Amino acid sequence: MDIIGKWKVKQLNIPTLDGVIQCTPDNMPEGEIFEEFAPMANAIFEFTPEGSLDMLLSFSAEQLEDAAKHGERVRDGYFVAESKPWKEVDGKFYYLEDIEGEIMGGEIDPYFEIKVQPDGSLMYCMDMLLLERV
């Protein structure tokens, strides 16, 4: 499967004290915890051929111009909020997460799997985001 290109959030799986709450970008629950996920819910995720996974956020033209003036990355009318390396190994896809440390005496692998779903969507961000092609 070729994942290069732009993807959007189809579903969010948000962990709470009461369990995981599933919602869509158009149907976000109210509350402080969900406000943190709102920008991510409306983001575009682009897998580039060069191996970068970019989170693109939509802002007004004025805001994008101001961001560019301050040295922020702006591309195709989006603010590049985050870039992470991604790779394909033996037909599976992985992205680099900023997590370090050990579990039961072994080092944590900083690459997390992007799981391809039967319908071709992608489970990303430690299974919190289900992405579909734009």
Written overview of the protein:
The model has no long low-confidence stretch (mean pLDDT 92). The chain is globular. A hairpin with a 4-residue loop joins strand 11 and strand 12. With 134 residues, the protein is mainly beta. It has one domain (5-86, 115-133). It has 3 helices and 12 strands, in the order E-E-H-H-E-E-H-E-E-E-E-E-E-E-E.
Which bin fits the share of residues in helices? 10-25%
Specify the overall morphology: globular
* Alpha plus pi helix count: 3
Number of strands: 12
Q: Please give the largest β-sheet.
A: 8 strands, antiparallel, barrel
Query: Could you give the order of the helices and strands?
Result: EEHHEEHEEEEEEEE
Strand content: over 45%
Give the class from helix and strand content and strand pairing: mainly beta
Count of discrete domains: 1
CA-based gyration radius: 16 Å
What is the overall pLDDT average? Answer: 92
Major β-sheet strand ordering: 1-3-4-6-7-10-11-12
Which consecutive residue ranges, at least 5 long each, have pLDDT under 50?
none
> What is the terminal separation in angstroms?
16 Å
Question: Could you list some keywords that capture this structure?
Answer:
134 residues; globular; 8-stranded antiparallel β-barrel; single chain; 12 strands; mainly beta
